[in-house]
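From the pipeline queue, job 12 of 40. The input is one protein chain; the requested action is below.

Action: predict structure.
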Amino acid sequence: MTTHEKKTFFATYDWAKSWQDLPWAHGEPTLFLAEICQRRKPGRALDIGCGAGTDSVYLAKKGWDVTSLDFMPKALAYTQSRAKEAGVSVTAVEADITEWVAPEPFDLVLDHGLLHNMDPLRYPAYRERVLKAIADDGDLVLLHWHPRYPGQPSGRMGPLRTSREDILKFFAPELQERFFAREEFEDLPDLVGGGMSQAYYWFRRNRGHYQPQELIDQVRATFRRNKVDVAAVLAAAGDAPVKARVAATDLLARLLGPGRFGLSHAPISPGDADALLKSWSAQAGLDPRQVANLFTLFTSSEHGDICGAVPKCGQCEVHTCKRLRYR
């Protein structure tokens, strides 16, 4: 942690007479937390940079086993005091996330504005620790400031502003964006750079990246469900590209992009699809040509037209696909 970071936060906490005085204090839980609490049973939650404690207390009241982590003792004092007032408890940990090792994975990891207040030199360590802290089926909720216009300065005190594209790239390929939202703040003190877009991210593990064979098996299961025998076609093609009719030249690229299989965190061009498949297949220990042929047939209009221009999602078994995995 840099001396500048320490000075800024110690000065702010020394100035604050209560948690409400903190510039980052918020009375309502961070966006997406309520939805997550509705969708899954309470588990283990990690609140990184718990600050005023609003989210830690909210999750504890919902039945979560909450670990509140912050390098500021006063932040932990605020959080524990508010938890006691609410009749719940949290586990307070005084530590820097870039140096702390999670004792076991968490079902939910929350960062309400810590990353955008961090020295970029510590980003790699932050990324490593956060990815290790998230369970295989866990969620990550991140609040981060965006620039309101290209080149907008961050201000003398920050926080740093980062584009959505760069945030997605930062967590790729391990994590996929599930939901995204933002709200605009047009007029803030020049000390923090004036206005900003406050962005909220909900990430989950990219199962196509972690479990490639599961994705392949689900594609094959979809062919069987639709009574399409592609084994003979693949065998006949061997090491050559299969011959298949597709409705659009970019269908394979769409299949690999964030809107479907999510092997790429951003939309890709048809020309980049083959290179992506080769690298993904090699990393997964799969035959690149066999995978390319299988995925091409999956988009083919003459082989069930399963994932063409109008995908047959109701007849698909690929639940790692974005069109299905959250429905």
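Job complete. The two ends are 41 Å apart (CA to CA).
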